[in-house]
Design goal:
The chain is an all-alpha fold and 216 residues long. The protein contains nine helices and no strands.
């Protein structure tokens, strides 16, 4: 097949012509399906290209190798979770509502991503010993903790180390509890799970009143 002079061959394939950003999104979606179904080690670039409906050269024009493709998927999912947590923190200045929002962000991410396997790409990968993968998985927890720590430090006047310690406890509890909830086949509703954890965590964090409030 001949390609017209000036055409971007990365946008051509059996799936037809697409803008580069749309093609990248299509390839990531296909790769996610293959990685979730087969695991990283058993997944093949040929399978991903076939799932996306493109030629293998088109896939390699966007991602030079399987690891780069997998890391791009991790980055995409991490950004989604981080954005959800930041949105919850920015939506209100009521700290109990913030706790509710952060918990909901975790449970919604895990519940939604369980349907397409995105959650397992981050937290249950068979490539967890790879330094680049481990760094990205740890960065997911670090970024969400830092976002919560910013709010805790600003509200309470605690120093940074103290705020990060509390925030690690808050976000860690949210992540561990949400993973247990999913692994246990959702034994309670998502709303009930969030409500129970919110009550537990609020009892602790409410012992650190805002600056200027009585008792601070």
């Amino acid at each position: 097949m001949s390609i017209a002079v000036g055409a971007d061959s990365s946008e051509l394939g059996r799936g037809g012509r697409l803008p580069r950003s749309a093609r990248r999104k299509q390839l990531l979606a296909a790769a996610q399906q293959v990685f979730v179904a087969n695991g990283y080690h058993a997944a093949a670039m040929d399978d991903i290209a076939e799932r996306a409906g493109v030629s293998k050269p088109v896939l390699y024009q966007h991602f030079p190798g399987k690891l780069e493709l997998y890391l791009a998927l991790l980055d995409t999912q991490a950004e989604m979770l981080g954005a959800a947590v930041n949105k919850a923190l920015a939506a209100t200045d009521d700290n109990r509502a913030r706790i509710h929002g952060v918990l909901s962000a975790y449970f919604e991410f895990i519940g939604r991503s369980d349907e397409d396997g995105a959650f397992r790409l981050i937290f249950e990968t068979d490539l967890g010993n790879d330094p680049a993968v481990r760094e990205r998985v740890e960065a997911v927890a670090q970024r969400t903790m830092q976002a919560v720590a910013d709010t805790v430090a600003g509200d309470t006047g605690l120093d940074r180390a103290q705020a990060e310690l509390l925030s690690t406890a808050l976000t860690g509890a949210a992540q561990v509890a949400a993973r247990w909830w999913l692994a246990s086949d959702r034994p309670v509703s998502q709303d009930d799970a969030v409500r129970l954890l919110e009550s537990l965590l609020w009892r602790g964090i409410s012992n650190f009143p805002r600056q200027g409030e009585p008792g601070h």
